[in-house]
Amino acid sequence: MGDAELPPYMKPLFMSGNSQKIFECVCDEQVTEENPHILISKAKIMEDFKMRAAVCDFHPVKKQVSNYPGEEILLVYDPDYKYGENFYVCLTEAGKAEYMDSLKKEEEAAEEELAAEAEAEEEYEEIALEDIILKDLPSTPAKWEEQGSEEDLEEEILTTSRSLISFMIQRKRKLFGTPIKFEDRSVEAAKDAYIECTSFEDNTFDMHRQEHDFAVQNVMESCEKACQTEWKKPRTALSQYVPRTLPPAQLEKINKSEDLAKFC
Q1: How do beta strands 72-77 and 37-41 pair?
Q2: C-beta contacts of 100-107 below 8 A and 24+ residues apart
Q3: Of 59, 102, 103, 83, whose CA–CA distance to 10 is shortest?
Q4: How many angstroms separate the CA atoms of 80 and 36, rounded?
Q5: Which residues, in sequence order, are CB contacts of 125 under 8 Å at separation 6+?
Q6: Residues 36, 89: Cα–Cα separation, whole Å
Q7: 3-state secondary structure of 39
Q8: Alpha-carbon distance 97 to 103, whole Å?
Q9: pTM above 0.85?
């Protein structure tokens, strides 16, 4: 049960899944935490009294519902079981009006708060735009601080792993500054007009993997054990009993005793 207390005109009420479907107040679908209240027709509840009698979930408040003066009864969803059940019902018109007025005031307060926030944001933007001064300042690099990734960065640096090849290209002096005419020409028109570097298989890097036959056998270890118990010599065992009776004189004395008379 919840620790909070409801007003006198409201009562906690448990609504089963079947009743939620009948009265169209399925939790987290037709009623949610954001929109928890719903108005249910009194006539529909009275009809459910006739159909299901004590099975109806409104049966604990049947008397109050029957005497309810209005046509619609307020039902509020309680997802956190704050008041002990998953719903609570309002049983007076005045209580329903008070609840609806409080909701209206909360909505108006929320709208006013949003409007105030929007207005304050607009004023802030106007003030901020007036005070902004743009300056083109040179960026100053921050000091490098080692955080443990220096080795990883060094591995990513591309470095030469072999000696560089040098080329020297020469031409005759008389060819410097002379006019040059370029034209389209087929590569087949002149010998050695182009060099084709086609892909080929380099036997230097051929690798052959030798095949091996391996066999693995797994055998469970086993052992032999024996246990011998000593069997005692068999023998016959018997018992005989007879009822225990009292002598006739003692029986007569007991029958005439005062203790037996009081007992009877």
Answers
A1: antiparallel
A2: 100/74, 103/37
A3: 83
A4: 12
A5: none
A6: 12
A7: strand
A8: 10
A9: no
Residue 241: half-sphere exposure toward Cβ, Cα within 13 Å: 2
Q: Say how far apart CA 163 and CA 165 lie, in whole Å.
A: 7
Cβ atoms of 90 and 10 within 8 Å: the answer is: yes
List, for residues 186-214, the tens digit of each pLDDT value: 777 777 767 778 888 877 777 677 777 87
Which residue, chain included where needed, has tokens 């993997």?
209
Using DSSP, state whether 63 is helix, strand or coil: helix
SS3 state at 9: coil
CA distance 261 to 176: 158
Strands 72-77 and 87-90: antiparallel
Instruction: Give me the torsion for CA of 131, 132, 133, 135, rounded to 10°.
Output: 160
Token pair listed for 76: 């509020």
> What are the start-end ranges of the H helices in 142-257?
150-156, 248-255
Q: What angle do CA 217, 218, 223 make, to 5 degrees?
A: 130
**Which tens digit of pLDDT belongs to each residue from 96-126?**
888 888 888 888 888 888 888 888 777 766 6
Residues 6+ apart with CB under 8 A from 53: 59
Which 8-state DSSP code applies to residue 76? E
Which amino acid type is present at position 186? S
| 235, two tokens | 């023998």
CA dihedral in degrees (107, 111, 117, 123; nearest 10)?
A: -160
